[in-house]
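Researcher: Let's do a round of design. I'm pasting the structure tokens now; please hold your answer until I've finished.
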């Protein structure tokens, strides 16, 4: 095992936890924007207007062939502006705290299944156990929603958003695109996607509370996209990808805890049980591989 200097370990963990905290707070901050009369489309516009500008200098690094930019369009389609709009639309139907549980779970589930099929990253016993625990947690979370079609629809939108991110992560690894370049092109192309929306939503943004607009533009485009990405990347470089990935398992807990303080949405037994199952599933899925139980697809 690689020995990491104490200073690097502390710095890496701190940066990683800050990034995870930003992502954990995302559903709640976004819900506040939607609650201030900003539509999901308007919030998506603000996110990628800022992120696209911030990442523009990095979007043209590396391979600039037509094939490489076609990959960039695929990244934007699965994890960019359309994905964000879907996730935020879910916030208008289902509890924001659920978004912090469902989206990360489907990112990991989709990533493991996609990795098995596309990347020959085989499903081990630990990963299969993790899959079952996470699916169990999602069932527990969704069960109380079965009588509420609107809320269930929100949960489904969260799942779609998570799967989109999983596809993005699998494609990025499959095509060997550096994370910075992939993220930069995703943000830049998404920025181009949302620009034509200004004539239809510009009046909405101009009429909204300026503080709400600045909060969403700053949190969505700067904190959630740029700062969190840079901090997590620095964390990976300091403590390694495996240790940094474990930090991501804290995202659902952060969302649920923050929701109880910021929204007075005290989690019930179902939410806490779902969180426990999801956390256990993520931890099991990230455990070191020991024995392969399923052959990878060719």
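Researcher: That's everything. Go ahead.
Model: Designed sequence:
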């Amino acid at each position: 095992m690689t020995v990491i200097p104490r200073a690097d370990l502390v710095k890496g963990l701190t940066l990683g936890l800050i990034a995870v905290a930003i992502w954990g707070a995302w559903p709640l901050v976004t819900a506040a924007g939607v609650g201030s009369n900003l539509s999901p489309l308007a919030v998506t516009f603000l996110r990628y207007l800022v992120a696209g500008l911030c990442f523009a200098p990095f979007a043209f690094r590396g391979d600039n062939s037509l094939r490489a930019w076609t990959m960039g369009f695929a990244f934007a389609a699965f994890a960019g502006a359309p994905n964000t709009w879907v996730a935020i639309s879910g916030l208008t139907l289902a509890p924001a705290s659920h978004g912090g549980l469902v989206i990360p779970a489907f990112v990991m589930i989709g990533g493991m299944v996609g990795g098995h099929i596309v990347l020959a990253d085989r499903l081990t016993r630990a990963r299969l156990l993790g899959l079952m625990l996470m699916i169990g947690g999602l069932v527990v979370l969704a069960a109380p929603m079965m009588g509420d079609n609107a809320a269930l629809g929100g949960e489904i939108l969260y799942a779609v958003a998570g799967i989109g991110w999983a596809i993005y992560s699998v494609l990025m690894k499959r095509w060997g695109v550096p994370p910075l370049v992939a993220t930069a092109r995703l943000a830049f192309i998404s920025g181009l996607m949302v620009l034509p929306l200004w004539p239809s939503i510009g009046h909405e943004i101009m009429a909204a509370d300026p503080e709400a607009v600045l909060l969403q533009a700053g949190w969505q485009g700067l904190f959630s996209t740029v700062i969190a990405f840079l901090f997590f990347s620095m964390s990976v470089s300091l403590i390694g990808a495996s240790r940094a990935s474990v930090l991501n398992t804290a995202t659902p807990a952060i969302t649920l805890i923050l929701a109880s303080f910021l929204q007075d949405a005290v989690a019930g037994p179902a939410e806490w049980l779902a969180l426990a199952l999801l956390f256990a599933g993520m931890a099991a899925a990230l455990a070191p591989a020991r024995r392969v139980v399923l052959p990878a697809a060719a």
